[in-house]
Write a structure and sequence with these properties.
Layout lengths: L1 E4 L4 H12 L5 E4 H6 L2 H10 L7 E3 L6 H15 L8 H11 L2 H6 L17
Parallel strand pairs: 1-2
Antiparallel strand pairs: 1-3
Length: about 120
């Protein structure tokens, strides 16, 4: 695992605590070094995390807890007609996750009570 981090970020601090607590090995990559480095490094980080915020935890191609949180947000963005064109990485991650059985079985529209759903009555 690679944790793109900044030492003073409280969000990154919480992730570091959790990783150490669980005994998970990880490599820390300083985002400060990226920002002070070459413009190409900044663009590469923004391609991975379009918000440019820290932390970013990368664990190969396997879905992470962040992906589990991301997919419902993407679902709602689509549901309410929000364009995700500016967020190709978010779209790519969501599409990959949605192709997995666990995500497929959890989709709102395949749940037993989804037959009660009437989109015209929503707003």
């Amino acid at each position: 695992m690679r944790l793109h981090s900044y030492y003073r970020s409280t969000a990154a601090y919480r992730v570091r605590i959790a990783l150490h607590w669980k005994g998970l090995p990880f490599e820390t990559l300083s985002v400060k070094a990226v920002r002070e480095g070459q413009p190409d490094a900044v663009q590469a980080y923004l391609a991975m995390n379009p918000t440019g915020l820290v932390p970013t935890l990368v664990d190969g191609d396997a879905p992470t807890f962040a992906d589990v949180c991301l997919v419902p947000q993407v679902y709602n963005a689509r549901r309410f007609g929000f364009s995700l064109e500016r967020f190709p990485t978010v779209r790519r991650i969501a599409e990959h996750c949605e192709s997995l059985a666990a995500f497929e079985h959890a989709r709102p529209e395949v749940q037993p009570d989804a037959s009660e759903y009437d989109p015209s009555a929503e707003f």
